[in-house]
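Predict the structure of Sel1 repeat family protein.
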Amino acid sequence: MSPRLLLAAVLLLLPAAQAQEPGGGPPPEQVAAHVAHSQGLAAALAREGGARELALAALLRQADAQQANPEATSEAPDAQAQAWLRAAAAKAGADAIANQLLIAAAAKADPIRLEAARRWQAAEPDNLAPLLHAGLTIDALLAQARGATRADTGMYPAVRWIAEAWRRHPPGVAEQAAMAGGEGFDLDEAAAMSAMAVWAAAAMPDYAALVEGCSAQMLRAQPARRGGCLHVARLLADGATSIADEHAGLAMLRALAATAAERDEADARQRAMDWRMLQWGHLAQQQPRGGAGQFARLLRDPRIRSEQQLAERVLAQGGVTADPPPGWQAPRR
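Done. Here is the predicted structure for Sel1 repeat family protein.
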């Protein structure tokens, strides 16, 4: 988790992102308002004392500390945040959201993070997602993933909970005015976008080692991995609940393709994803505050369990087909 990235993501997704100064980042008053509210939110959550609350408090405190001292390394421990993490870990049990927040807040090699991943995996043994945070070697991951039948990061349940915590402890009047950047402040929008930014910056798995371990070059040296790599790739491509997970799965399927037909299928699926993401972006740009209001409304719908479902709903409401026109190609990156 990079606290600096977390803060940047939160700020850029808040409604006031439209009021950026020429030449780059958010206005200083917006940064100050966000940090002040984040500090207060962390303290309030810690006082509530639940496992989820303590883990989120630690995550927010680390982001605030990094912002206050940008020269500090991301590995520099914060005594209060570590105390909150230990207290959260002692209470987390099988609570998936509490363990996800512990994973997001703890350093990669921290035993707190690894134990949280193990607790989550024990509670959901059919789920690939916890294994991606468990510090396993590629071969151990592939072996343990044999029994997995889904790849559910639990993103939207966690984001909904974070947004609710944000709404319970809203910014003060002056902070709201600074965050809004001259526009009206909408609590639901700010809570939803902040919660999504926290998750995106801190809780997503790192697929680099998995993708490399299942690359064509590595499989030439380790051919016994192919079956396990294909299983994991299909779980991510076919059953993931986030776009990032699906994207990783499709990239793996493309690398693992043994025939022209398999490569064509992977390419076609990638084009369809690119189409949906680009159209979602275009539709959002046509709405006030980059579609924050629509996102907040859809996030409240418990029937939407994945990012893919939310994207499809946005496209349907905008009258855009979910499949690209024949011959469509994504703009070159």
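The chain is about 65% helix and 0% strand.
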